[in-house]
Design a protein that fits this description.
This protein has 4 helices and 5 strands; from the N terminus they run ββαβαβαβα. The protein is of the alpha/beta class. The protein has a single domain, classed as STAS domain (Transcription Regulator spoIIAA, 2-Layer Sandwich), CATH 3.30.750. Strands 1-2-3-4-5 form a 5-stranded mixed β-sheet, with helices on both faces. The longest helix is centred in the middle third of the chain and has 16 residues, at about 60-75. The protein is globular.
Length: about 120
């Protein structure tokens, strides 16, 4: 299955950033896992920022993938934060209680400032 999700990784002070684009669904499992591994190897930061600014679609399997990233990060002592979620997906994160475990920010700049303050 070809993934409709693409990722780019980069670093901000104190945070490894994974910029996602396209669709986060079952086909994104390998792409997201590889991006996470690349991000944390390249940047031993205590935080991982998932940027959803360019994501068009997230289904229930995509939510499960995000939960798996959260679990992996937490087992390694890393915080996970997210930015760029649409109002619709902010509601989904609230309903699924993901927002209880992942701090949500409007954009990367707000996330960087928020993570830097912690």
């Amino acid at each position: 299955m070809t993934s409709k999700c693409e990722t780019t990784t980069r670093s901000l002070p104190g945070c490894a950033v994974i910029e996602l684009s396209g669709e986060v669904d079952g086909s994104a499992a390998d792409v997201l896992s590889k991006a996470y591994d690349e991000a944390v190897v390249a940047d031993q930061a205590p935080c991982v920022l998932l940027d959803f600014s360019a994501v068009d679609y997230i289904n229930s399997t995509g939510i499960a993938l995000i939960v798996s990233v959260l679990a992996k990060a937490r087992s390694q002592g890393r915080q996970v934060v997210a930015s760029g979620l649409s109002d619709h997906y902010r509601q989904i994160f609230a309903i699924t209680r993901l927002s209880d475990f992942i701090q949500l920010y409007d954009d990367i700049d707000a996330a960087a400032a928020g993570v830097g303050a912690n």
